[in-house]
Amino acid sequence: MKNIISKKVQIMQPSGIRAFFDLVLGMEDVISLGVGEPDFVTPWQIREAGIYSLEQGFTSYTSNKGLYKLRLGIQRYLKNRYGLEYCPDSQILITVGVSEALDLSLRAIINPGDKILIPVPSYVSYGPMTELAGGRPVYLDTSRSGFKVTPEILKKNIDPRVKAIILNYPTNPTGVSYRRNELSEINKILLKNNILCICDEVYGDLTYDFEHTAFPTLPGAKANTLYLNGFSKAYAMTGWRVGFACGPEEIISAMTKIHQYTIMCVSITSQMAAAEALVSAKNSVEQMKREYRRRREFMTGELNLLGLECSRPQGAFYLFPSIKGTGLSSMEFSRKLLDEEKVAVVPGTAFGPYGEGYIRISYASSFDNLKEALARIKKFLEKRRYGNQKKG
Amino acid sequence: MDEILEILEKDGRMSPEDISKMTGKKPADIKKTVKKYEKEGVILKYKAVINRELVRENDSEVRALIEVNIVPQKDLGFDKIAERIYSFPEVTSCYLISGTYDLLVVIEGKNLRTVSNFVAEKLSCLEHVRGTATHFLLKKYKEDGVILKHKPEENKRIAISY
User: Fold this and answer.
1) Separation of alpha carbons A372 and A34, rounded Å
2) Which of A23, A28, A32, A237 best tests the B interface by mutation, with the highest count of B CBs <10 A?
3) Mutation site for A-interface testing, chosen from B9, B155, B160 by largest number of A Cβ within 10 Å
4) Do the two domains A7-42+283-383 and A44-280 of this chain adopt the same fold?
5) Which residue from A32, A41, A295 is facing B160, i.e. has the nearest CB?
6) Do A346 and B162 touch (CB under 8 A)?
7) At what angle do helices A249-262 and A97-109 cross, to 10 degrees?
8) Residues of A with CB under 8 A from a CB of B
9) Right CATH for A7-42+283-383 from 3.40.50.700, 1.10.10.10, 3.90.1150.10, 3.40.50.620
10) Collapsing DSSP states into helix, strand and coil, what is residue A68?
């Protein structure tokens, strides 16, 4: 069969990181700081609700939009947490994680050639998803502004073909987040230029130093924003695959059209469990958050002491230290660290070209693991320094 | 609860230096605070939680929960008689409870006989003790928030993900 694969898929970046990942997966006794999910298991009351729903025989499809009970729970959560009002009948859609919500939103709005702004380093899927939907990703380099998109960067990249921006904060991979006044500036520019904000706020509940601002709470933003969130990170429910999109009825109903033909609905067991999470897991979330916060404090201090410069991130569970001082590229650093000391990290280049010179470290790992990993990184760096001195 | 207490309650081995790195407080201040807690009796003791079922020794232990019904004393209530009971080294825990019985006493002994001897010869004949009901413990699943599992948790996450 010749040319069976579509051109669109053929030109998709085959990730160079894949080989490195396969290497990690094949090794034993590796301490991995490369994991993008919580090290906690889903709190028991949530798992129990999933089990109970199975026992009760809830094994059918749900409505396309998702269980009404869950949509109602989300409506209440957003109202209590942010004072946000979304109608559970027409403005909330339950999706297979935030990933599906993002895919739906891009497919719902993009005409061929439309531009989507993506601040980078960013989560790996934004670019490829945009391309699959027929759009053109425009990558905004944030590496010289503390990994934040600024009004200046934004203005420089605006033209009439720009349809939307994907704004993820707290950010994977850098852990950086925005304060309300910073978001407010961004919002003004978006409104003025009629650019939709697709905000991926899946780490919103894991914000440590200040109150997280939901983008649609900014003045005039709600009608111009698609708010995406999910249960994976804050509730430690990655494997359940439940996310949601909230926004203007017009966009949500367009997304629902695609969703009903491609996915139909999210697994009912997962939806039942997620509904319970909103009711009874607040304490568990708070407990996990306190634990992450301590690890962040610990890791930021220690990495800086080791000479791997990193600013203290405000959310999520990632650190994005610079490894430029070692003279190695991100990939070389990660390969050697894995080979020599059996510590796995993710090279910054996995998150776009502007990630060169950085690595992503996840502190979603036990304190003992973090300590041991740091000891190994220290050994790795010392060996290098000593070796260089001898050579010089 | 103070964050230092929360950390130590989970892991009593955490050093002031580590706690300092986690909280941003100075090690000296943490040492001072911990000392204060120790002095005030907020922190009573540091110990290891041992899964006795895995300790291979001949002298296995027997535990019993004993419900004790007592006659309260004038002016002293239950406290005096409770003190007489919990002072026995065989008693590992002692609680005043609501309901049909007054005290819940946990006893530990080398075997069935030592435990029953204790109940018959020491506990039951105490003045003010009206009656007892002994429940021998067959298996421990969870104690003070710790699940007594035999094998360590396996890692269920994939080593690298975005």
Assistant:
1) 15
2) A32
3) B160
4) no
5) A32
6) yes
7) 110
8) 21, 24-25, 30, 32, 34-37, 39, 41, 123-125, 172, 290, 294-295, 297-298, 301-302, 344, 346, 350, 367
9) 3.90.1150.10
10) helix
Residue boundaries of the structural domains of chain B? 3-40, 60-138
CA B126 to chain centre: 24
Of the partner residues B3, B21, B159, the one whose CB lies closest to the CB of residue A24: B159
Chain A residue numbers with beta carbons less than 8 Å from the beta carbon of B156 are 41
Closest CA to A276 of A239, A233, A242, A228: A242
Residues sharing a CB contact under 8 Å with residue A197, sequence separation 6 or more, in sequence order:
A164, A165, A167, A186, A187, A190, A215, A221, A224, A225, A226
User: A51 vs chain B: nearest CA distance in angstroms?
Assistant: 19
Q: How many angstroms separate the CA of residue B160 from the nearest CA in chain A?
A: 5
Tens of pLDDT along chain B (162 residues) come to: 899 999 999 999 999 999 999 999 999 999 999 999 999 999 999 998 888 777 777 666 889 999 999 988 887 788 999 999 999 999 999 999 999 999 999 999 888 899 999 999 999 999 899 999 999 999 888 888 888 876 777 788 888 888
What SS3 class is residue B101? coil
- Site of tokens 């599992």: B149
> Quick check: helix, strand or coil at residue A22?
helix
CA angle A372, A367, A206 (to 5 degrees): 130
pTM to 2 decimals?
A: 0.90
Find the residue in B nearest to A296 (Cα). B22
Q: Which residues on chain A are in Cβ contact (under 8 Å) with B157?
A: 35, 37, 39
Instruction: Express each pLDDT in A179-231 by its tens digit.
Output: 999 999 999 999 999 999 999 999 999 999 999 999 999 999 999 999 999 99
Question: Does A298 contact B22 at a Cβ distance shorter than 8 Å?
Answer: yes
**Letter for the amino acid at A119?**
P
Q: B60-138 has which fold? A: Alpha-Beta Plaits (3.30.70)
Give the residue from A4, A10, A13, A29 showing the smallest Cα distance to A344.
A29
Beta partners for A346?
A360
Question: Which distant-in-sequence residues (6+ apart) come within 8 Å of A76 by Cβ?
Answer: A278
ipTM surpassing 0.90, yes or no? no
Strands A346-347 and A243-246: unpaired
- Annotated domain spans of chain A: 7-42+283-383, 44-280
- Cβ of A35 within 8 Å of Cβ of B159? The answer is yes
Cβ under 8 Å to A: B residues 3-62: 3, 6-7, 11, 18, 21-24
Question: Looking at the domain that runs over A44-280, which CATH code has it been given?
Answer: 3.40.640.10
